[in-house]
Design brief:
With 189 residues, the chain is mainly alpha-helical. The chain is built from 5 helices and 2 strands, in the order H-E-H-H-H-E-H.
Amino acid sequence: MKNLSLTLNILLIIAVAFLYYKVYSVKEQAPIIHSSATTKNAAIVYVNSDTLLDNYPLLKTMEKVFNSKRDSVDRILAAKDKSLKQEFADFQKRAETMPQEQAQQEYNGFMQKQQQLEALRDGLLKKLGSEQESMQDSIHNNLEAYLKEFNKTKGYEFILSYQRGSGILLADDSLNITNEVLKGIKEEK
């Protein structure tokens, strides 16, 4: 029993020594990125997303279409709301001369119309929300596809998004490829 315990302890000491040797004998150096790096030899570059989105042609086009739809929905809802308010004002003038039962029926009808208008508004706003989400997905997919194609010739390991107030507090301007990306996107169209 003592021999088994002694043998196990010796094996454990050898294993620990081997692991210690493996971990501390390999001297890997972390890649050093100098601030004077150019985008030609940089592995990580960034695009200023604020500038990109302000000048992205597809986004501008989609925003115009979306704003037009939103304005149309606003006009439709405003017209229906105005019409319903006018009907209700007319009803209030006539209600004084109506029998109580008839006035209650018309009032219930207006309440039902109000609920229908609210349901219409909710439905239209939900549809606009999904269209906006779809638009954002389309823009993201388009940009991602372009950057994949763009990067085939550049060979960057990472293309980060930088914007004021994001997690990146400082970025070297020599790693900024925003203008190059914008130029390529505009030439592609």
